[in-house]
Amino acid sequence: MTEVVPRLAEVEADVQGLVEAHMETLLGVRFLASEYNTGPVHGGRIDSLGLDENGSPVIIEYKRGTDAGVINQGLFYLAWLLDHRAEFEHLVRDRLGTTAAAQVLWSGPRLICIAGDFTRYDVHAVREHRRSIDLVRYRLFGSDLLGLETVASVSGGRQVARRTRRRAVARAAADVQGPLMVELASTVDEVLLGLGDGVNRVERKQYRAYQRLRNFACVCPPQRSKLLVYLKVAPKDVDLVAGFTRDVTGLGHHGTGDLEVQLRTPRDVERARGLFRASYAAA
Question: What is the pTM of this model?
Fold first, then answer.
């Protein structure tokens, strides 16, 4: 046996290059630009710019070790981004196309800070801000392994009282169907939000996404007799049951995830709890 010792990168650029090369796999974020120049007036360079699975703009800042300035630096760039929306949308149009640019979601821009470690003061600081911030600790193991651990995740402007969120979900379901779908949508919302700390909910017209660093569940508006939930669980690892779970790999649908779960009754929600937890753990 050989002990694989965790270590920090030699230089910050090593972490940045690794994340940028695999950003969608690691963070669920599509890469847009590296070392993006914010112009002579602002006088800065954003380490990485991206667009997450739900269309939210993402700024990623890196530090090799522990650096108290990474959060303030990221917030400085986030303020610049909100003042330069047209410039960002132009960048998205150039890199990802007009459809992606038209779907940019400005209600919840995100800051992801990736560093060797964070202090308890950093964790406290992000909870005092009204921004969506993720603190992620990295470690390299040997020559070919990377570990990412979410230290803190705050939803910022998207965070509202849970009771308010439940009422909003209930009203949305009531507009489409009757009391059964209202109660089912509220139950699913409560279960997904209650899976653990740092769960953010993102509202899109076609679906609601529940995310940690990445989406782990997407819930579509209720149909006449069922509620569709898409999960980040590999269908090959699940015993598929007709009328309850379905492999939608390669099939077009709203939201993200290759496993479709069909919910018709509260009993179905109980049956799906294990799948919800597995998808949450994977995110």
Answer: 0.81
